[in-house]
Write a structure and sequence with these properties.
173 residues; alpha+beta; Aminopeptidase; 7-stranded mixed β-sheet; acyltransferase activity, transferring groups other than amino-acyl groups
Amino acid sequence: MSTPPNLPDGVTLRTLVAADAAALAPLNDAAAPAVPVTPPDDIARLIEIAALPVGLERGGVLVGFVIALAPGADYASENYAFFSARETPSLYVDRIVIAESERGNRLGQALYAAVFAEAERLGLPEVTCEVNLDPPNPGSLAFHERLGFERLGSQATKGGSVTVALLAAPASR
């Protein structure tokens, strides 16, 4: 993993380990409903199966992270299953979270730079993810559109309580 360019002063990128899960859970849960509330044990498992688990730190405190999975991961997610069933293999972004206090500092772009670089390194032609349509998340949809993501479709998940847009972007930039 290479360090993305243009990280703000004082922000560093590092690989996450399962022991980070306790620190990540409150950051993750504060971003709900954009991402599901997730107990630390489940976050630790995601980190362990991820092709790319990376976090951003400021002053030794995690202020953002992304967890992305390669094809073939042992992961029972409805959205991951949708992308896995497609002919085009992809690096699937399960979640990307930026602390509220850090939003607007281009940290999301930095994390996605790492995701696109990893997809290319792995020889995967696409990066995929989902963004909530209901409950709505228009800011995230606009952010992903600026990064070149296009909608492949939508689906209801979590027993119909959430509807997501299923998005993909070419890995090569």
